[in-house]
Specification:
single chain; five-stranded mixed beta sheet; alpha+beta
Length: 448
């Protein structure tokens, strides 16, 4: 750095690492509040990071000057789970994979998955009993896993969904710990964490490769409309080549892991927020009753459910599944008048930006109507609200996630009200790879 940037004081060797790992969300929120748009954070003896809390600076990093950066350690570590998929690869490889995958996530194509989402939701909640106490986060994880496997792979793994869900959780926890650890213990060292992770990886690989192999071995002429079929058939417009089994596996694994965890978290936090705000919940149910009149929702109904969509937007504002984006500088760069050099990390937190009082009145309050009419998003800078990231690496599945969230809320909300008992402790966000509720979320189901 050529310009001195202040930040929270830390310990002589570990710097701010311990304080950050103890409570990342509070630490980052305080750092932004006390030190402004750019705060210096030491992540160990020689790792220098900078929290960027200015939307225009974030736009420079993710859009205008994105070629000066690569994905930081956390997503490099994620390659252990998702390989060289669209989430983790860089440069020309990323551009090629995105070209190949983009058609599969076109808005018109994913609209065809809406009926499956609703059908899976109806099937899932048939087992719910009035007055039953459930871990709603576990329920949402199972439901979104069933949806992602059926819509993406044309396969149903509900029979071993718990086993697969546990394997994914082990992988995400491992990535999170390894990404923030001072000690980099090689995977070959037989620690308990390494052994658990290897077992989880083997299970996920076995599941994914089995689905790919079955599809490759099908007789010619077999027709499928799922994502796997599109990945296997995709050809690069520049050279006509397709994906190898390894490339397909990496993209499938990326979708498998990211495609249900994030939406499950959004839904869990949404049910929690609705339970804490009865006036919002009442208006939510009223809109469902008036628009749907007791029938199942469809994709065509989504534009007629504006309050449901506002609830989703506001839930993602307060509890964004992707709560932070990190970039490592690869060549000298100037951002907002500050100079950064290779090896330094720039941190951008959706959790922090989405609660910035410069852009949101009563920033900690759940107020879906703030998104009514879209005026807020037009008035604020682009990167004051970026739940799906931004720039050329914006989440490719954003439209899929928004559609799924709206349809599942509508389907479940028609039949049930979900409450959190007065004696239940407040839900605590746990920022692992995604922002999930710590220790699950016990809630009571009430038939409407």
């Amino acid at each position: 750095m050529t310009t001195q940037i202040s930040g929270p004081r830390g310990l002589p060797l570990s710097g701010n690492l311990l304080a950050f790992r103890k409570d990342p969300l509070s630490f980052l929120t305080r750092a932004a509040s006390e030190y402004g748009d750019v705060a210096h954070i030491r992540m160990g003896p020689s790792r220098h990071a900078y929290l960027i809390s200015n939307p225009e600076y974030i736009k420079e990093i993710l859009v205008a000057k994105q070629a000066h950066f690569k994905k930081a350690k956390g997503l490099q570590v994620a390659k252990l789970v998702v390989g060289e998929g669209i989430l983790t690869n860089e440069g020309k490889d990323h551009l090629r994979q995105r070209r190949l995958m983009q058609p599969a996530f076109h808005r018109d194509r994913i609209a065809g998955y809406g009926d499956i989402m609703v059908e899976e939701a109806v099937n899932h909640i048939e087992a719910w009993k009035d007055g039953e106490l459930l871990d709603i986060h576990h329920e949402m994880m199972r439901l979104t896993l069933a949806i992602i496997t059926r819509t993406m792979f044309g396969a149903n793994v509900s029979s071993n969904a718990d086993e697969i869900g546990h394997a994914i959780e082990v992988g995400l926890q491992y990535i999170s710990k390894k990404a923030t650890s001072v000690l980099d213990i090689p995977l070959e060292v037989p620690t308990k964490g390494n052994r658990d992770f290897q077992q989880a990886s083997e299970l996920l690989d076995k599941t994914i490769y089995a689905i790919i192999e079955d599809r490759r071995n099908e007789p010619e002429g077999a027709e499928h409309t799922d994502l796997l079929a599109m990945l296997l058939a995709a050809r690069d417009e520049e050279d006509g080549t397709g994906m190898s089994d390894k490339q397909v596996r990496d993209e499938v694994m990326t979708i498998f892991v990211a495609g249900h965890e994030t939406t499950a978290n959004t839904l869990s936090w949404t049910w929690y927020l609705l339970s804490q705000h009865p006036e919002v919940e009442a208006r939510f149910h009223q809109e469902l009753d008036e628009v749907l009149e007791g029938r199942e929702p469809t994709v065509d109904d989504i534009p007629s459910l504006p309050y449901v969509n506002q609830i989703v937007q506001e839930s993602m504002r307060l509890y964004p599944a992707a709560w932070m984006i990190n970039r490592e500088v690869v060549e000298n760069v100037e951002i907002g008048g500050y100079h950064f050099k290779p090896g330094e990390i720039l941190m951008m937190s959706q959790f922090v930006m989405h609660r910035d009082p410069r852009f949101y009145d009563e920033p900690d309050r759940f107020k879906p109507e703030r998104f009514d009419g879209g005026e807020l998003l037009k008035r604020n800078p682009q990167f004051a609200y970026f739940p799906f990231g931004g720039g050329p690496r914006i989440c490719i599945g954003n439209n899929f996630a928004l559609m799924e969230s709206a349809l599942l809320l509508a389907t479940i909300g028609q039949r049930f009200r979900i409450s959190r008992g007065e004696n239940e402790p407040a839900a605590i966000p746990e920022p692992v790879v995604t922002l999930r509720p710590k220790n699950g979320m016990k809630m009571t189901i009430h038939k409407r």
